[in-house]
Every structure is written in structure tokens, then in C-alpha cells.
Write a structure and sequence with these properties.
The protein contains 16 helices and twelve strands. By secondary structure, the protein is α/β, with parallel strands linked by helices. The strands form two sheets. The protein has a ten-stranded mixed β-sheet with strand order 9-8-7-6-5-4-1-10-11-12, with helices on one face. It is globular.
Length: about 375
């Protein structure tokens, strides 16, 4: 990796392959108004006293609307069709709606991930006007005290649910995301029912990733074991989903899903070969992991052309040559490696410092004899 990063990508002419840059993940700010126990990016928390009346920080240098306009002009010929806005907390940016307006003007699909606490009536109206496709809002408990404690701020639950209601008043497609850990696993039913009561369109359950603060939670046995997560998948599918009137998405690797579900439903996967991430200072990487892994930074939009990076950077060449073809461990033997691409490559790199390392969950399941035998080649 060090050798790769020391090479000047501008001097390399990589043979063109049909890799489209379908999406940009835009970490629009490295700050947050909460301090969530699990956050893998561990953003700087803005004290309440400095948040101001509307709890927003104003303009943050490095990532501007004008720069993003130029980025879009470069990315469109490469296949760009979607922008996912995340953070930090994106609505801390006083100019966040200017970004959304730009993307709407450019006829791009826009998805937003937020803690929901800063969404007011005006914001909901604007998101509707700009035709945002999906807004995902985090709720980790149906009990306000438990949610506030996990999110690190009193009143976070009330503010988030109020934000969801503003979105629903505009009939916006809204998803509740639950960050699953040992402290709230018994609340899955209650949170699902809360999601239904709030009128949202779907409910997603994300097991906490062992990155950043989430890694510390795993070390302290505050996350669920592989055995528990696999059993929970069956429980949700067979017991909970039939009684909940909205889709439930539970994020486990595709190899652990029943064949019927794989065939009947479109399976979520990380499109690592078709995305780039841009963070608040303009650094370019895969999906925001550059905040954690600086050696995966491929350039900066303020000084480098994004299209040049996409076509010529040696790190991307290595990724395209090795994923999924050279995946290691159980991922290299799995029938679904061409679909899931080794699940989260950012997490694999963070834990093993290798782009081809097996995904931790699948490898641990295999080592424990829990990986489905029908999903891998016996050698």
C-alpha cells in the first residue's frame, strides 16, 4: 500500500474498463451535534453552547457548492447518477440545502442520512421541493431516555421524532435506521412498531460495525456475537416481518440469507467498485473511510481532478484487479463474492490493513462452523 501511494497516479495510464462512477458519498461535515457511542467516524461534537439558535455551524471551508458543481461536471461522463449526503450531521451545515438544490438542478438522485434532530418544517418543505429520494433517520430505542443516553444528548429522541414527523408531513420517503447492540436488541419490536406509528416507509437494522467507537463497543462485549446475529436474522424474517406493515431490512452478508429471499428480492450490497467518497476537507476515498484510514486518500477535489483519479489512480486499479477475484479466506471461496464484493471493504481494510482480507463476520462464522456449507466451495 505504501508503495502504491508513493506512485504518482498522474503518470500512470490505466487501461479503461467498464467501471462506472455511479454514486458519490458526500460526508458534508466532520462535525455532529450528538456523541453516539457507536459512531465509526467519531466526528467532533459541537457543544450545545456553540450551536446557536438553529444549532448550525455555518460554512465550513474545503467543501463548497461551487466546487461540487465542478465535481459533478467531471463525474457525469463517468456515469454519476446518485449523491448520498451524510456526515457528521449534514444539517449542521447552514448551506446544506444549497447542495441539495444543486444536485436537484443537475437531475441527480439524492439520499440523505441524518440523526433527524435538526429537521424543521422549512427543511422538510425544501427536501420535498428538491425531490430527495430517501431520508434515513437514526432511532436506537423506543424509550426516549435510552435513545438520548446512547446518542449522547438529552432531548435527541424528541427532536428526531419531531424531524420524522416534518418529513412525513411532506410525504417524503423516510426510513428509520436502528444501530443494533446488546443494549437495545430486546427493543427491536418496539422500534419497529414506533416506525410504523411514525408513518415511515421502511425500517433498517444495522449491526454496529467494529470501526471507531464501534470497535471499542465490540471489545467491551456490547455488540452481539455472530451466533446471535445469525439467529436474529431468522427471528426477524419469520416472526417480526409478517406482523409489521413496512419492509424490514436487516444487514447481514448475503450468504446468510435464504435462497428464496435472494431470488425474490434485490439484495443490498456495497457498490465499492462504483463509488467515491468525498469528505468535508475535499479528500477523496471510497466512502468516508478517509477520516479513519488516511492511506486510502487518493486526492483532494480542491487540487485534483476527480475524473483523472477515477480513471488512473493505482489504488483503484488495485481494487478493480483484486475485488472480488483475489479475496482471501472464506470470502474468496463464497459463491456470492461477485455480488457482495466481500461486503464492506472499508471495514476489512480497517481491521486487517488489506483490501482483500475476508469480511470479519463471514470469517468468524466460518471459523465457528456457522457459515452455510451450500454457499462456499469445499477445497
Amino acid at each position: 500500500m505504501d508503495q502504491l501511494m508513493s506512485t504518482s497516479f498522474e503518470d500512470i495510464n490505466v487501461e479503461q474498463k467498464p467501471y462506472l462512477l455511479g454514486a458519490i458519498y458526500l460526508n458534508i461535515t466532520d462535525r455532529c451535534n450528538l456523541k453516539c457511542r457507536h459512531c465509526w467516524l467519531s466526528p467532533d461534537t459541537i457543544p450545545a453552547a456553540k450551536q446557536g439558535v438553529d444549532r448550525r455551524t455555518g460554512y465550513i471551508a474545503g467543501l463548497s457548492v461551487s466546487v461540487m458543481r465542478d465535481v459533478i461536471n467531471q463525474a457525469r461522463p463517468l456515469g454519476l447518477h446518485t449523491i448520498k449526503i451524510t456526515g457528521g450531521e449534514p444539517f449542521l451545515r447552514s448551506d446544506v440545502l444549497d447542495f441539495v438544490s444543486l444536485f436537484h438542478e443537475q437531475e441527480l438522485i439524492v439520499d440523505i442520512e441524518t440523526n433527524g434532530t435538526l429537521i424543521d418544517e422549512f427543511t422538510g418543505e425544501k427536501l420535498k421541493q428538491y425531490q430527495v429520494r430517501t431520508i434515513s433517520v437514526s432511532l436506537d430505542s423506543a424509550d426516549h431516555e435510552k435513545h438520548d443516553r446512547f446518542r449522547g444528548m438529552d432531548g435527541a429522541f424528541a427532536m428526531a421524532t419531531r424531524g420524522v414527523k416534518h418529513l412525513q408531513q411532506q410525504n417524503l420517503n423516510t426510513q428509520i435506521i436502528m444501530s443494533l447492540h446488546r443494549g437495545n436488541v430486546e427493543e427491536i419490536d418496539d422500534i419497529a412498531l414506533l416506525a410504523v406509528d411514525l408513518g415511515v416507509q421502511s425500517f433498517k437494522i444495522n449491526p454496529i460495525m467494529p470501526i471507531g467507537r464501534g470497535y471499542k463497543m465490540r471489545q467491551e462485549d456490547l455488540t452481539l456475537s455472530v451466533e446471535e446475529l445469525i439467529e436474529l436474522s431468522r427471528n426477524i424474517r419469520e416472526r417480526l416481518q409478517p406482523k409489521i406493515g413496512i419492509p424490514i431490512y436487516y444487514c447481514l452478508p448475503i450468504a446468510f440469507e435464504p435462497f428464496t429471499k435472494i431470488v425474490e428480492e434485490s439484495q443490498a450490497k456495497c457498490p465499492v467498485l462504483n463509488i467515491l467518497g468525498i469528505v468535508e476537507n475535499g479528500d477523496i476515498s471510497f466512502c468516508g473511510i478517509e477520516n479513519v484510514e488516511k492511506d486510502l486518500v487518493m486526492g483532494n477535489i480542491n487540487r485534483d481532478r476527480l475524473d483523472t483519479i477515477w480513471m488512473n489512480h493505482p489504488l483503484l486499479k488495485t481494487m478493480r484487479e483484486s475485488v472480488p477475484w483475489q479475496l482471501e479466506g472464506i470470502c474468496g471461496k463464497c459463491f456470492f463474492k461477485k455480488i457482495c464484493l466481500g461486503t464492506c471493504r472499508a471495514c476489512a481494510y480497517h481491521l486487517e490493513k488489506s483490501l482483500t482480507a475476508p469480511y470479519w463476520f463471514c470469517q468468524e462464522a466460518f471459523d465457528k462452523g456457522l457459515f452455510p456449507e451450500t454457499r462456499y466451495l469445499h477445497q
